[in-house]
Amino acid sequence: MSVDTEAEPMQIPRPVEPITKPKGLGIYRTGHVALFSPDPAASAEYAVSHLGFQHAGHDDEGRYYLAGHGPDAYSLVYTPGVSGLETISYIVTDDAAFEEAASMLAEAGVDFTRNDEVSQFRPGPTLSFRTPAGHPIELRTGFVPDVPVAASTRRPSVAPAPIASDHVVLRTVDMDGEIEYVRTNLGLMESSQIQLPDASPLMAFFRGSKLYHCMALARAEVNGLHHVQFTVKDAAAVLEASEVMTKNDVEILWGPVRHGPGHNVAIYFRDHVGHILEFSSEEMTILDDENYSPTHWSVTDPRSADEWGTFPPESFK
């Protein structure tokens, strides 16, 4: 999250009318995120030794797979390349939902690739495409719990201990166009916006199911990745991660903070390549879509950045 204005008196976030749940592509939750790295092996080793991930293997194309401490086979992938986002992999509920998503993409004239090849790291088919802003999306089936993944996972005995990836924040030039695409084509539900003084969106937060967001868009001068989030078990785990990582010479860019939108406790730092990563917990859950009203926060409200009163440094933007 990024806010440049100085603190002003707190305001009450403004709710808007409840929205009808869109049909969309049936996205349920985030599965994994793949990032480019000029040295995937070194990036993977750093993620294990400094950030608490676990080795899950590598393939013949040089991709290194890293697991969290949750049920997913892997949550983070490093792929040979310079830097940036290779793909965000989202999970749909079952095979029927996957086939329906494929049909909907075809009917909408979306240029997508279907891969039915099965391998050690690809247990089922995938659909790959890009949003109008060029953000790369993958759909597949996977673990679909009744509660958020972190809630279904025992508290790890080590720190840091990322459990699963729950959201990604994307830099976006055409906010209005990308917001409309995410709402209608992807079918994600809007949880809130942080708005500029003219009521235009600075950030927009979207969910697939219960968790506050699986994707957020941030107004920027270029399209691309802002940061990738990984959930830890609870707020204490965020603080423990911050302490251990600092002792291991991982610079904490910002945090601990508690955001207004989503109410999650978070820290931000960089991986081996320089990508911004987030560890957070206690993200708000929304259980009644029909009666939930998306909230509009003002950028001048200091709570939109941090309820505890801090603002992100220039290195975070």
Describe this structure in words.
This protein has helices at 40-51, 95-107, 175-184, 235-247; strands at 14-15, 27-37, 54-58, 64-67, 76-80, 85-92, 113-115, 126-130, 136-141, 164-172, 189-195, 201-207, 215-219, 224-231, 252-258, 265-270, 276-281, 295-298. It is built from 4 helices and 18 strands. It has a 10-stranded mixed β-sheet with strand order 1-18-11-12-13-10-14-17-16-15, covered by helices on one side. The protein has 317 residues and is of the alpha+beta class. 15% of the residues lie in helices and 34% in strands. Strand 4 (64-67) and strand 5 (76-80) form a beta hairpin.
Distance between the termini: 8 Å
Rg measurement, Å: 18 Å
Count of distinct strands: 18
Q: Work out the helicity level.
A: 10-25%
**Class computed from helices, strands and strand pairing:** alpha+beta
Helix segment tally: 4
- Beta-strand content bin: 25-35%
> What kind of assembly state do the chains in view correspond to?
single chain
Strand order of the largest sheet: 1-18-11-12-13-10-14-17-16-15
What's the shape?
globular
Q: How confident overall, as mean pLDDT? A: 93
List the helices and strands and how they pair.
Blueprint: E1 14-15, E2 27-37, H1 40-51, E3 54-58, E4 64-67, E5 76-80, E6 85-92, H2 95-107, E7 113-115, E8 126-130, E9 136-141, E10 164-172, H3 175-184, E11 189-195, E12 201-207, E13 215-219, E14 224-231, H4 235-247, E15 252-258, E16 265-270, E17 276-281, E18 295-298
Parallel strand pairs: 2-5, 6-9, 10-13, 11-18, 14-17
Antiparallel strand pairs: 1-18, 2-6, 3-4, 4-5, 7-8, 8-9, 10-14, 11-12, 12-13, 15-16, 16-17
